[in-house]
């Protein structure tokens, strides 16, 4: 999954021959999972039709402040467009538009939207060789960068005039790649490796039956996605779960038993910066696993259980520079039990939730947590979706890393 997935992208198209490339650019943004809206200068419609970009973006294309619909005039609100976007890209950006952006000239909807934008703004110049090399153009580019706008450099090659040199708009694939790399480079967990466990474990009784629990893995998978979206490379050790994840930064390792999870965690732990153990690992397993299905009898069946290895404690014992985060699902004496785990297992943080809280616990879409650090400082959160809870958890981890 691209880091652009779920992003709101506002594409500004100006009147250069390279405008024909914006059809492919919109297609690539959509393919990456972004939502796209397009604003065109009136003259850019001579190079590519609004219908083409509207069809590809699945949104209306705007180019004027007012549009007629039947007998009514509809106002295209440049402020709303600017506030809607997570990022804005002006491509192609002609010499004329660059100059207007620099000087605050506001004579069309695109420029009004640019001046209203609160998000990062990328611009991809496109013009002929001499125009690109002209001091006024270089001055415009330097000024725009000083404003915080982000230049996507023009490429060299054959130009519309027949000249060969710098001035070609970057290819759509290169524009998307540039923006993705720029976003990743600024993410707070960029360069960090995270080990994360999720879901239940199944402890075999015989080839058919097992001891398990009701964990769905939803919470752990949401934490994995949030960490990956913030730039982390995530090793997700997942017990049996129907949850799915597709992200280029997430490596999923499927396991079944507590022993499988123990081995996987110890395999990756030494190379990670952060370990978040959210899985509901079985505390006990059958001491003897039957090789054949156990037949039902009229008499009672007794299964002798033995403790499984304590994965969290074992990682705490060998912890070096890793930040180690545990989870505690409690039914009574919640805070006291969670604090005792911090000390016993050498944790930096523990995420506590209680089965006494309505909407929290296994197989729900919501959770209510308290995060406690090694100094026993507590921070409680309201009931939220597990997606939002995952953000609270990762934010606390980032705060801890930066402390």
Task: Please describe what this structure looks like.
Keywords: Decarboxylase, Flavoprotein, FMN, Ligase, Lyase, Magnesium, Metal-binding, Multifunctional enzyme. Its cofactor is Mg(2+); FMN. It catalyses: N-[(R)-4-phosphopantothenoyl]-L-cysteine + H(+) = (R)-4'-phosphopantetheine + CO2; (R)-4'-phosphopantothenate + L-cysteine + CTP = N-[(R)-4-phosphopantothenoyl]-L-cysteine + CMP + diphosphate + H(+). The protein is an alpha/beta fold. The protein has two domains: 179 residues, Rossmann fold, CATH 3.40.50; 210 residues, CoaB-like (Rossmann fold). Helices cover 33% and strands 25% of the residues. It has 13 helices and 24 strands. The strands form seven sheets. Strands 15-14-11-16-19-20-22-23 form an eight-stranded mixed beta sheet, sandwiched between helices. The chain has a six-stranded parallel beta sheet with strand order 3-2-1-6-7-8, sandwiched between helices. The longest helix has 17 residues. The protein is elongated, with a radius of gyration of 28 Å.
Spell out the key features of this protein.
403 residues, alpha/beta, Rossmann fold, 2 domains, eight-stranded mixed beta sheet, six-stranded parallel beta sheet, 13 helices, 33% helix, elongated, magnesium, lyase
């Amino acid at each position: 999954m691209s880091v652009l997935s779920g992003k709101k992208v506002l594409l500004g198209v100006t009147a250069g021959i390279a405008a024909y490339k914006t059809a492919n650019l919109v297609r690539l943004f959509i393919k990456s999972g972004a939502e796209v809206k397009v604003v065109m200068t009136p003259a850019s419609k001579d190079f590519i039709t609004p219908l083409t970009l509207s069809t590809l973006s699945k949104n209306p294309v705007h180019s004027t402040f007012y549009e007629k619909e039947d007998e009514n005039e509809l106002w295209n609100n440049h402020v709303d467009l600017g506030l809607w976007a997570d990022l804005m890209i002006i491509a192609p950006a002609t010499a004329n538009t660059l100059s207007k952006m620099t000087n605050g000239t506001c004579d069309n909807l695109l420029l009004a939207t640019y001046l209203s934008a609160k998000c990062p703004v990328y611009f991809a110049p496109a013009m002929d060789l001499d125009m690109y090399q002209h001091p006024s153009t270089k001055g415009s580019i330097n000024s725009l960068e000083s404003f915080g706008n982000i230049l996507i450099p023009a490429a060299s090659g054959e130009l519309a005039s027949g000249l060969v040199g710098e001035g070609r708009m970057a290819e759509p694939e290169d524009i998307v790649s540039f923006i993705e790399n720029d976003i990743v480079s600024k993410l707070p967990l960029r360069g960090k490796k995270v080990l994360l466990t999720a879901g239940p474990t199944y402890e075999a009784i015989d080839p058919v039956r097992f001891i398990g629990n009701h964990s769905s893995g939803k919470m752990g998978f949401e934490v994995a996605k949030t960490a990956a979206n913030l730039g982390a490379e995530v090793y997700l050790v997942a017990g049996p779960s129907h949850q799915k994840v597709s992200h280029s930064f997430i490596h999923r390792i499927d396991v079944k038993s507590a022993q499988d999870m123990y081995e996987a965690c110890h395999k990756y732990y030494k190379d990670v910066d952060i370990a978040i153990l959210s899985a509901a690992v079985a505390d006990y397993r059958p001491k003897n696993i039957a090789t054949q299905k156990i037949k039902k009898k009229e008499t009672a069946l007794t299964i002798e259980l033995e403790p499984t290895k304590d994965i969290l404690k074992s990682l705490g014992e060998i912890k070096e520079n890793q930040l180690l985060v545990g989870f505690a699902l409690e039914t009574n004496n919640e805070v006291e039990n969670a604090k005792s785990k911090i000390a016993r297992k050498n944790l930096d943080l523990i995420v506590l939730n209680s089965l006494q809280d309505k909407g929290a616990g296994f197989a729900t879409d919501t959770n209510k947590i308290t995060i406690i650090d090694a100094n026993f400082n507590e921070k409680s959160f309201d009931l939220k979706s597990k997606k939002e809870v995952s953000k609270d958890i990762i934010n606390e981890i980032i705060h801890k890393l930066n402390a």
